[in-house]
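Lab notebook, bench 4. We co-purified these components, and the gel suggests they stay together. Before we commit to crystallization screens, I want a quick structural picture of the whole thing.
Request: model the full complex, all chains together.
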Amino acid sequence: MSKKPRLSPKQRARRRFLASLGLAAGVTGASLLGFVPVAAKKLHDRLRPPGALLEEEFLAACIKCGQCVQVCPVEAIKLADLTDGFGVGVPYIEARDQACDFSCDGLQCVLACPTGALIHEVAFPSQVDMGIAKVVAAGNCLAVQGKGFKGLARGADFKGKLRYAEIDRWHPIPVAEHPYDLELCDLCVRQCPIEIQIVECANEDEKRREELGLVAQRQPGECPPKHAIELRPIESNDGVKRMEPVILEGCVGCGVCEMICPVEPAVIVIDSSESRENSRGMRA
Amino acid sequence: MSGVMDSLRVLFGGEPKRVPKKEMPPEVQELHAHKFRDKERIAAIHAELAHKAQNKIPEKKRRLRWSVLIAVNMLFVVSYYFDIQLLEGALTASRFAGFHMADLNSALQVMLAFKHVVINLLIGTTTIFILWWLLGGRTFCSWVCPYHLVAEWAEMLHLKLRKKGWAMDIQFDRRTRTWLWLLFAVLALATGYTVYETISPTGILSRALIYGPGVALVWVGLILLFEIFFSRRAWCRYACPIGLTYGVVGATSPFTVHYKLTNCYHEGECRKVCLVPHVLDIVKKGRAPAMEIDIGADCTRCLRCVDACPTGALSFKYKGLGGLF
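Here is the predicted assembly.
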């Protein structure tokens, strides 16, 4: 440091200008690196919370505060790290670990969102469009093989939770505390929140008709208008009863089927890219 | 009003103006002229400063400020951890007892990128605007921003290393921050991404505290290393657009750090501890153009100068709404 020649004021100003330019370029450059994961379409298969806008709009509208994370009763929502670039701090769901099972009923995350990144027009699960379930390895499916399922769907160490309305409607319990004993595995259909809601709605309506003689007045979307998934029999010559899961129009992509599938890796997974591309987070 | 305009000019990176002696009021000229006559008083001040240097006296206001900063950030953490829903979200946007709040710079990035403003965001932005206008804009920086706290610790280390000659202090042009602010606004508008949020150490730290650490902390670490070895408090001084946003908001705040020329013996202790010493340019000998001056918009009201001043020339003051008009 000691032998440096004295700089003239002009030289010093020039140095400062160049250093400042370097600082500004460095900061801007670092921030623009955030574009890399976006350009690489790395985020396009991220499953976003219910009501999430189109991916590009969603990244723009999200203020990265995590209020959606805080209200979720099953803690399905996580915030992305800096490896997501511009998507840092943006919420996503890892369905296999913990799917959105709509156990909040009222779409709490949507209500919590301060910027409308989760579109406020959705009021009911059936209106949501997070993606569509897809059967990716039908050959591994227990139902297709004609097998039943006995035991814990995801093993004793699995942390994920689900609402089992028949046990406790208001508090989701760990899947690991709920063993099954099924003659033919139908977990994806059995636990589908849309299918459950269709049955609940029908039961409620029936009850009301019987007790009060009233026809239920429902808000649009309050009861899912379409089925989401069903098991269809497959013709087989060996006498074994076989079924295959078929995804229907009413699937909203919540990911419960992916989470509950006892086969490793899951036979059924959510594809969040296609349907969301046209839906703006909400079904027409 | 011209005072406010000038304080904004300095906030944007302009050099503090020097008022020629002749244009100062006569009593100010007189005071400047006679300032150093009281040799006894000055000797006493020097003795006191020497004593202070020997026996580290705790900076009480700094401790208070750190407590508030930690308390605010912990309120987010505790609120989520115990699910008491008192302060939900993170520093970018939150809800206090259900009422929306949105960081002005984060909200601006979202508005520019998304080009659509929902009512909740408008409510949150307005609330925060009023809050920080009242409390003095950059008060956010030194009393709330978690990066400010770690940067202060890094600064302590930086100063120690500087004494040993192991670190340097590159002085950048303060206009860099203004250009970066504009650049990030244009980038948000043009690309449709909240580009600044990607590297905002404020957002990253706030989320890390509440939702758990991640790779993003590496970036914060890099900025801190740069500050420790190359440039004192570089991020807050030369880069952070949040600070500039709040600086503008608080330019007419009723709370200010107040300077009294009568008490000042130009020891320069305040400027040594100040994050933004250009706002204290007027404390240099012969510079103050008036007997009493409110410190400019870039001031974060950290109050370290108030603690550092050996003669009580600086104080935190409620000045009322006069600055507006």
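Residues 22 and 29 of chain B are 8 Å apart (CA to CA). Worth comparing against the SEC data before the next meeting. The radius of gyration of chain B is 21 Å.
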